[in-house]
Design brief:
By secondary structure, the chain is α/β, with parallel strands linked by helices. It has one domain (7-243): 3-Layer(aba) Sandwich (Rossmann fold), CATH 3.40.50.720. It has seven helices and seven strands. The protein has helices at 16-27, 40-52, 67-81, 107-134, 156-176, 201-210, 219-231; strands at residues 7-10, 31-36, 57-61, 86-89, 138-143, 180-187, 239-242. Strand 1 (7-10), helix 1 (16-27) and strand 2 (31-36) form a beta-alpha-beta unit. Helix 1 (16-27) packs parallel to helix 2, helix 1 crosses helix 7 and helix 4 packs parallel to helix 5 (156-176).
């Protein structure tokens, strides 16, 4: 499907992966709303990059913990561009807590992780759904993680929240069919993101040693698959792992 001329909202659009997704969509002719919570300056920079390449873009602050903020932003994007055809649920958090250290994983951190990583995508999808349906070919692409496929990742909370994202994808695919397709990407370790900027070289080397390609996950590959899911007509309810072959090692 040709997505040229469509409109997308990308949550977490100011981060490393978010920026790559915005660029990939803009390269396909999509007008992009770059969502952010704290990264206002980075979001503005992404918009300037997109505009310099000839795309239409706006920066929008969206607080996924505040339902009124979600409603207002979704309506703002649709009113500004005249429609909302694509939603990319990319915003997430991951605070490191070793799995065996149950005491360190506080109830507060558990609740915040679930709120950002699971409740947030649900809330944005819920309020975007009427606009996506009215376009007659709406698309939702969720961003999960390898951590949602097996017990690994920054913490138990992150792993469970991303597993929930996979199931949310399947449930929304059923709920919104046939007007909207809903798919998901599950990246491995991506260098150059806000979530991974503080990881050690030893951790990166350990990931590469588990990958049959001997590499971390390319931001551009993940972003390209997001765009491809938007172009696909008969794929829904699927999660694609993009990890350099760690699952095959």
């Amino acid at each position: 499907m040709n997505i040229d001329g469509s409109v997308a909202l990308v949550t977490g659009g100011s981060g490393g992966l978010g920026r790559s997704i915005c660029v990939a969509l803009a390269d396909s002719g999509v007008s992009v709303a770059v969502g952010y919570l704290d990264g206002e300056e980075r979001s503005a920079e992404v918009c300037e990059t997109l505009k310099a390449a000839g795309a239409k873009a706006i920066s929008v602050r969206i607080d996924q913990s505040d339902e009124s903020s979600v409603q207002d932003v979704v309506a703002e994007v649709a009113n500004t561009f005249g429609s909302l055809d694509i939603l990319v649920n990319n915003a997430a958090m991951a605070k490191g807590v070793p799995f065996p250290d149950l005491e360190a994983l506080s109830s507060e951190l558990w609740d915040k992780t679930m709120q950002v990583n699971l409740r947030g995508p649900w809330m944005v999808s819920k309020h975007a759904a009427p606009y996506l349906k009215s376009s007659n070919w709406g698309r939702i692409v969720n961003v999960a993680a390898m951590a949602g496929m097996k017990p690994m990742g920054a913490s138990i909370a992150q792993s469970v929240s991303k597993a929930g994202t996979n199931q949310l994808t399947r449930c929304l695919a059923v709920a919104l069919a046939p007007d909207v397709t809903v798919n998901c990407v599950a990246p491995g370790l991506m260098e150059g993101t806000e979530l991974t900027k503080n990881i050690s070289d030893a951790f990166v080397d350990g990931f590469k040693s588990q990958s049959v390609l001997g590499a971390t996950t390319s931001l551009e590959d993940v972003a390209g698959q997001v765009a491809q899911f938007c172009r696909s007509d008969t794929i829904t309810g699927q999660t694609l792992v993009i990890d350099g072959g760690v699952f095959f090692h």
